[in-house]
Amino acid sequence: MSKWKVAAINFDHLHMGDNLRMAFEHEDVEIVGLCDEQPEHMQAAIENFSIPPGRVFSDYRECLQKTEPDIVLLCPATAEHGEWTEKIAPFGVHIIMEKPFAATLDEADRMQVAMRGTGKLLVINWPLAWYPPHCTARRLITDGEIGEVLEVHYYDGNRGPLWHVADKVEKTAADVEAGKAASWFYKRDSGGGSLLDYLGYGVTLGTWFMDGRAPIEVTATVDQPSGLEVDEHSITVVRYAQGLSKFETRWGTFTDPWTLQPQPKCGFVIVGREGTISAYDYEETIRVQTRANPEGKVRPVDVLQAPFQDPVQYMIHCIEEGQPIEGPLSLGMCRIGQQIVDTAVQSAEQKCTLPLIK
Predict the structure, then answer these.
(1) How does strand 71-74 pair with strand 217-222?
(2) Which entry of 45, 62, 254, 324 is 20 to 30 Å from 35 by CA?
(3) Which of 248, 240, 276, 245 is nearest to 264 (CA)?
(4) Strand bridging mode 169-170 / 164-165
(5) DSSP letters of 305-322?
């Protein structure tokens, strides 16, 4: 069988290097093209994956026409997700868009319209969806161990988006401060801020844990850091028919969770009618309380197997097997998450509780 051809276009989000590594390590994938309007953004990927000059482009049309990929990895700034989906969709390729879904619900809906009639898949990749603790939590929910989910408590983030590049390579504090003025992460019009960066993770996986249920109303507040256009801390309270859940985002955690878990820990605590689960990012165990074991028990996380280890594996599996995208990468789950995010943004601006935006 010939290999799946993958092209990577727009390197605005630093996760592109991580997603390219997934493609590079897949035995049935060939990276056929890299493209960004600013060549320096691609330099690390060119070196890491030994990409020859003939596969490096600055114009996306030329890249697509010359390489004819099957799958395109997209990592644009949040506010440009709709624009880039509309640019790429006419070329008849499958798209893996790096989180979040979009900056607004209208933009998310534009993305779905752009893909209609192409016969190709669009998935939104949430890296947390591949973390063993969270996958284990979802399995236990499916198995009925904690009964109906009533509450999801989420706290997540990192020291800030400029503290690291691909493969979690660290930068210095001086680099971080110097980079804020030019970075799209700190520009309101580009979809910057911790709320848009991290709330979608929590509410999309939260929707997954709640079997696709949508909430009734949303209340959100954000900080207002001096000298910045965007927030670095947000708290969102979401009311469902069965109760309240809380989702908190933070740029400025004491440590990065992939090196040392900060306090509060990054991850989820899920409360059901018959038990609870704590599932924290990067940890090798989760803790489960049940009626039979109210004192709680620490359990090892599941060992994830291909093709359920990363978005590249999963998309190829779904294409080959003719299966729909399910779970937190599915557009249905992601749209509910985007509804919550949009309502949270407006709630924070208006300083009031709002009904879920439809």
Answers:
(1) unpaired
(2) 324
(3) 248
(4) antiparallel
(5) -TTSSSHHHHHHHHHHHT
**Partner residues linked to 57 by β-bridges:** 35
Question: Can you give the pLDDT at residue 102?
Answer: 96
Q: 284: closest CA among 256, 303, 265, 269?
A: 303
Q: Are the CB atoms for 23 and 6 separated by under 8 Å?
A: yes
What pLDDT, in 10s, does the model give residues 231-286?
Answer: 999 999 999 999 999 999 999 999 999 999 999 999 999 999 999 999 999 999 99
CA 146 to chain centre: 26
Report yes or no: 244 and 238 within 8 Å, Cβ to Cβ: yes
Is the C-alpha dihedral spanning 253, 269, 77, 170 positive or negative? positive
Mind listing the domains of the chain with CATH numbers?
Answer: 4-125 (3.40.50.720), 129-309+336-355 (3.30.360.10)
The confidence score (pLDDT) of residue 175 equals 87
Between the CA of residue 176 and those of 10, 27, 42, 129, 171, what are the distances in Å? 22, 36, 20, 28, 7
